[in-house]
Protein backbone atom coordinates (compact mmCIF):
# COMPACT_ATOMS: atom_id res chain seq x y z
CA UNK A 1 0.00 0.00 0.00
CA UNK A 2 1.34 3.42 -0.89
CA UNK A 3 1.50 5.80 2.08
CA UNK A 4 0.37 9.39 1.97
CA UNK A 5 3.49 11.48 2.47
CA UNK A 6 2.06 14.73 1.11
CA UNK A 7 0.66 17.11 3.73
CA UNK A 8 -2.09 18.58 1.55
CA UNK A 9 -4.95 16.78 -0.22
CA UNK A 10 -8.08 17.62 -2.16
CA UNK A 11 -11.43 16.36 -0.93
CA UNK A 12 -13.04 15.31 -4.19
CA UNK A 13 -16.67 15.84 -3.16
CA UNK A 14 -19.25 18.55 -3.68
CA UNK A 15 -21.50 17.30 -0.87
CA UNK A 16 -21.35 19.62 2.17
CA UNK A 17 -22.39 16.88 4.61
CA UNK A 18 -19.65 14.54 3.45
CA UNK A 19 -17.06 17.33 3.46
CA UNK A 20 -17.92 18.15 7.07
CA UNK A 21 -17.69 14.52 8.18
CA UNK A 22 -14.48 13.70 6.29
CA UNK A 23 -12.80 16.92 7.48
CA UNK A 24 -13.62 15.92 11.06
CA UNK A 25 -12.21 12.43 10.54
CA UNK A 26 -9.00 13.91 9.07
CA UNK A 27 -8.62 16.66 11.68
CA UNK A 28 -6.31 14.74 14.08
CA UNK A 29 -3.78 13.98 11.34
CA UNK A 30 -2.46 17.45 10.51
CA UNK A 31 -3.22 17.27 6.81
CA UNK A 32 -4.30 20.43 5.05
CA UNK A 33 -7.50 19.83 3.10
CA UNK A 34 -9.01 21.83 0.30
CA UNK A 35 -12.32 20.91 -1.32
CA UNK A 36 -12.96 20.41 -5.02
CA UNK A 37 -15.42 23.29 -4.87
CA UNK A 38 -12.90 25.69 -3.34
CA UNK A 39 -10.55 24.88 -6.23
CA UNK A 40 -13.34 25.42 -8.75
CA UNK A 41 -13.10 21.84 -10.02
CA UNK A 42 -15.94 20.46 -12.10
CA UNK A 43 -17.98 17.44 -11.03
CA UNK A 44 -17.13 14.49 -13.26
CA UNK A 45 -19.99 12.29 -14.45
CA UNK A 46 -20.44 9.19 -12.29
CA UNK A 47 -20.86 6.69 -15.12
CA UNK A 48 -19.94 3.45 -13.32
CA UNK A 49 -22.41 1.05 -11.71
CA UNK A 50 -20.37 0.38 -8.57
CA UNK A 51 -19.29 2.50 -5.58
CA UNK A 52 -15.65 1.64 -6.31
CA UNK A 53 -15.95 2.62 -9.96
CA UNK A 54 -17.46 6.01 -9.21
CA UNK A 55 -15.10 6.68 -6.30
CA UNK A 56 -12.19 6.09 -8.69
CA UNK A 57 -13.64 8.45 -11.32
CA UNK A 58 -14.01 11.27 -8.79
CA UNK A 59 -10.62 10.84 -7.12
CA UNK A 60 -8.59 10.51 -10.33
CA UNK A 61 -10.35 13.47 -11.92
CA UNK A 62 -9.61 15.72 -8.93
CA UNK A 63 -6.01 14.48 -8.49
CA UNK A 64 -5.18 15.22 -12.11
CA UNK A 65 -7.02 18.55 -12.13
CA UNK A 66 -5.42 19.82 -8.90
CA UNK A 67 -2.08 18.02 -9.19
CA UNK A 68 -2.50 16.88 -5.57
CA UNK A 69 -3.53 13.60 -3.95
CA UNK A 70 -7.33 13.48 -3.88
CA UNK A 71 -9.74 11.65 -1.59
CA UNK A 72 -13.22 10.85 -2.91
CA UNK A 73 -16.27 9.24 -1.31
CA UNK A 74 -18.91 7.29 -3.19
CA UNK A 75 -21.74 6.16 -1.00
CA UNK A 76 -25.41 5.25 -0.79
CA UNK A 77 -28.04 3.21 0.97
CA UNK A 78 -28.91 -0.35 -0.05
CA UNK A 79 -32.30 -1.64 1.07
CA UNK A 80 -32.54 -5.42 1.35
CA UNK A 81 -36.23 -5.77 0.43
CA UNK A 82 -35.59 -3.63 -2.67
CA UNK A 83 -32.77 -5.89 -3.88
CA UNK A 84 -30.17 -3.33 -2.86
CA UNK A 85 -31.84 -0.28 -4.38
CA UNK A 86 -31.22 2.65 -4.51
CA UNK A 87 -27.57 1.75 -3.74
CA UNK A 88 -25.14 3.42 -6.15
CA UNK A 89 -28.09 5.46 -7.46
CA UNK A 90 -29.12 7.00 -4.12
CA UNK A 91 -28.29 10.57 -5.19
CA UNK A 92 -30.02 10.00 -8.56
CA UNK A 93 -33.27 9.05 -6.83
CA UNK A 94 -33.28 12.51 -5.24
CA UNK A 95 -32.69 14.49 -8.44
CA UNK A 96 -35.41 16.89 -9.61
CA UNK A 97 -35.31 19.68 -12.20
CA UNK A 98 -34.82 22.06 -9.26
CA UNK A 99 -32.04 20.17 -7.48
CA UNK A 100 -32.05 17.31 -5.00
CA UNK A 101 -35.09 16.48 -2.91
CA UNK A 102 -34.16 13.84 -0.31
CA UNK A 103 -37.54 13.83 1.50
CA UNK A 104 -39.10 12.89 -1.84
CA UNK A 105 -36.50 10.15 -2.40
CA UNK A 106 -36.99 8.76 1.12
CA UNK A 107 -40.75 8.69 0.57
CA UNK A 108 -40.23 6.84 -2.71
CA UNK A 109 -38.20 4.18 -0.90
CA UNK A 110 -40.77 3.84 1.89
CA UNK A 111 -43.68 3.71 -0.60
CA UNK A 112 -41.97 0.90 -2.49
CA UNK A 113 -41.54 -1.05 0.75
CA UNK A 114 -45.22 -0.47 1.60
CA UNK A 115 -46.30 -1.57 -1.88
CA UNK A 116 -44.40 -4.83 -1.34
CA UNK A 117 -45.68 -5.21 2.24
CA UNK A 118 -42.04 -5.75 3.17
CA UNK A 119 -41.79 -7.29 6.65
CA UNK A 120 -40.30 -5.39 9.59
CA UNK A 121 -37.53 -4.70 10.32
CA UNK A 122 -36.84 -3.18 6.92
CA UNK A 123 -33.12 -3.75 6.93
CA UNK A 124 -30.69 -1.60 4.99
CA UNK A 125 -27.02 -0.71 4.92
CA UNK A 126 -25.21 2.51 4.20
CA UNK A 127 -22.11 1.78 2.11
CA UNK A 128 -19.10 4.02 1.56
CA UNK A 129 -16.09 3.63 -0.68
CA UNK A 130 -13.20 6.03 -0.18
CA UNK A 131 -10.62 6.35 -2.95
CA UNK A 132 -7.28 8.12 -2.54
CA UNK A 133 -5.71 8.84 -5.94
CA UNK A 134 -2.43 10.48 -6.84
CA UNK A 135 -1.77 12.62 -9.93
CA UNK A 136 0.44 9.83 -11.36
CA UNK A 137 -2.58 7.50 -11.56
CA UNK A 138 -1.97 5.29 -8.51
CA UNK A 139 -4.88 4.76 -6.13
CA UNK A 140 -5.90 2.99 -2.94
CA UNK A 141 -9.52 2.01 -2.14
CA UNK A 142 -11.21 1.50 1.25
CA UNK A 143 -14.76 0.22 1.81
CA UNK A 144 -17.05 0.58 4.79
CA UNK A 145 -20.65 -0.12 5.79
CA UNK A 146 -23.09 0.21 8.64
CA UNK A 147 -26.13 -2.03 9.02
CA UNK A 148 -29.47 -0.91 10.33
CA UNK A 149 -33.13 -0.56 9.46
CA UNK A 150 -35.44 2.03 7.98
CA UNK A 151 -38.12 3.84 9.95
CA UNK A 152 -41.04 6.10 9.03
CA UNK A 153 -41.79 9.01 9.40
CA UNK A 154 -38.50 10.87 9.04
CA UNK A 155 -36.86 11.93 12.30
CA UNK A 156 -34.14 14.53 12.87
CA UNK A 157 -32.47 17.25 10.87
CA UNK A 158 -28.85 17.01 12.01
CA UNK A 159 -27.42 14.93 9.17
CA UNK A 160 -27.98 14.90 5.43
CA UNK A 161 -29.36 12.71 2.67
CA UNK A 162 -31.12 9.59 3.97
CA UNK A 163 -30.10 10.10 7.62
CA UNK A 164 -33.67 10.85 8.90
CA UNK A 165 -34.97 7.32 8.15
CA UNK A 166 -31.93 5.20 9.05
CA UNK A 167 -31.57 3.66 12.51
CA UNK A 168 -28.24 1.85 12.95
CA UNK A 169 -28.34 -1.54 14.69
CA UNK A 170 -28.18 -1.21 18.47
CA UNK A 171 -29.48 2.39 18.55
CA UNK A 172 -32.93 3.99 18.85
CA UNK A 173 -32.17 7.32 17.20
CA UNK A 174 -31.88 7.90 13.49
CA UNK A 175 -28.62 9.25 12.07
CA UNK A 176 -30.58 12.49 11.63
CA UNK A 177 -31.29 12.75 15.38
CA UNK A 178 -27.88 11.67 16.65
CA UNK A 179 -25.12 13.95 17.77
CA UNK A 180 -22.95 14.37 14.65
CA UNK A 181 -19.91 13.03 16.49
CA UNK A 182 -21.83 9.87 17.39
CA UNK A 183 -22.79 9.28 13.75
CA UNK A 184 -19.22 9.99 12.67
CA UNK A 185 -17.89 7.35 15.08
CA UNK A 186 -20.06 4.50 13.72
CA UNK A 187 -21.07 5.36 10.15
CA UNK A 188 -20.14 3.65 6.89
CA UNK A 189 -17.77 6.61 6.34
CA UNK A 190 -16.10 6.03 9.73
CA UNK A 191 -15.73 2.32 8.91
CA UNK A 192 -14.03 3.09 5.58
CA UNK A 193 -11.93 5.78 7.25
CA UNK A 194 -10.65 3.30 9.85
CA UNK A 195 -9.14 1.34 6.92
CA UNK A 196 -7.93 4.51 5.18
CA UNK A 197 -5.89 5.36 8.30
CA UNK A 198 -3.36 2.72 7.23
CA UNK A 199 -2.10 5.08 4.49
CA UNK A 200 -1.45 7.76 7.12
CA UNK A 201 0.58 5.69 9.54
CA UNK A 202 4.26 5.18 8.88
O1 LIG B 1 -23.88 9.48 5.61
C1 LIG B 1 -24.88 9.58 4.88
N1 LIG B 1 -26.07 9.97 5.36
C2 LIG B 1 -27.15 10.11 4.60
N2 LIG B 1 -27.17 9.91 3.27
C3 LIG B 1 -25.99 9.52 2.71
C4 LIG B 1 -24.82 9.34 3.47
N3 LIG B 1 -23.85 8.95 2.64
C5 LIG B 1 -24.37 8.89 1.44
N4 LIG B 1 -25.69 9.25 1.47
C6 LIG B 1 -26.63 9.34 0.34
C7 LIG B 1 -26.90 10.77 -0.01
C8 LIG B 1 -25.86 11.09 -1.04
O2 LIG B 1 -26.19 12.15 -1.91
C9 LIG B 1 -25.76 9.77 -1.78
C10 LIG B 1 -24.37 9.56 -2.27
O3 LIG B 1 -24.19 9.95 -3.61
P1 LIG B 1 -22.70 10.32 -4.10
O4 LIG B 1 -22.69 10.47 -5.55
O5 LIG B 1 -21.74 9.37 -3.48
O6 LIG B 1 -22.44 11.71 -3.39
P2 LIG B 1 -22.87 13.18 -3.78
O7 LIG B 1 -23.26 13.23 -5.24
O8 LIG B 1 -23.86 13.66 -2.81
O9 LIG B 1 -21.53 14.00 -3.59
P3 LIG B 1 -20.12 13.77 -4.39
O10 LIG B 1 -20.36 12.76 -5.46
O11 LIG B 1 -19.75 15.09 -4.92
O12 LIG B 1 -19.16 13.28 -3.36
O13 LIG B 1 -26.04 8.76 -0.81
MG1 LIG C 1 -22.15 12.29 -6.67
Automatic annotation (TrEMBL):
GO terms for biological process: nucleotide metabolic process; purine nucleoside triphosphate catabolic process. Belongs to the HAM1 NTPase family. It comes from the Bacteria. One of its GO terms (molecular function) is ITP diphosphatase activity. It is an enzyme of class 3 (hydrolase). Homodimer. InterPro entries: dITP/XTP_pyrophosphatase, ITPase-like_fam, RdgB/HAM1. Binds 1 Mg(2+) ion per subunit. Its cofactor is Mg(2+). Substrate binds at residues 13-18, 75, 160-163, 183, 188-189. Pyrophosphatase that catalyzes the hydrolysis of nucleoside triphosphates to their monophosphate derivatives, with a high preference for the non-canonical purine nucleotides XTP (xanthosine triphosphate), dITP (deoxyinosine triphosphate) and ITP. Seems to function as a house-cleaning enzyme that removes non-canonical purine nucleotides from the nucleotide pool, thus preventing their incorporation into DNA/RNA and avoiding chromosomal lesions. Keywords: Hydrolase, Magnesium, Metal-binding, Nucleotide metabolism, Nucleotide-binding. It comes from Halocynthiibacter halioticoli. PANTHER family: INOSINE TRIPHOSPHATE PYROPHOSPHATASE, INOSINE TRIPHOSPHATE PYROPHOSPHATASE/HAM1 PROTEIN. Gene3D superfamilies: 3.90.950.10. GO terms for cellular component: cytosol. The keyword DNA-binding does not apply. It catalyses: XTP + H2O = XMP + diphosphate + H(+); dITP + H2O = dIMP + diphosphate + H(+); ITP + H2O = IMP + diphosphate + H(+). This is dITP/XTP pyrophosphatase. Its EC number is 3.6.1.66. The active site is at residue 74. Mg(2+) binds at residues 45, 74.
Amino acid sequence: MRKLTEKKIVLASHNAGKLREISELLAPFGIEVVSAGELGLEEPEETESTFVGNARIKAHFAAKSANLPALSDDSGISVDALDGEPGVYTADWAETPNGRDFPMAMKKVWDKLEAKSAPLPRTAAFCCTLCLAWPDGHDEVFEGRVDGSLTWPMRGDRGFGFDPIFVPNGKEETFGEMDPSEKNAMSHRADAFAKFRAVLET
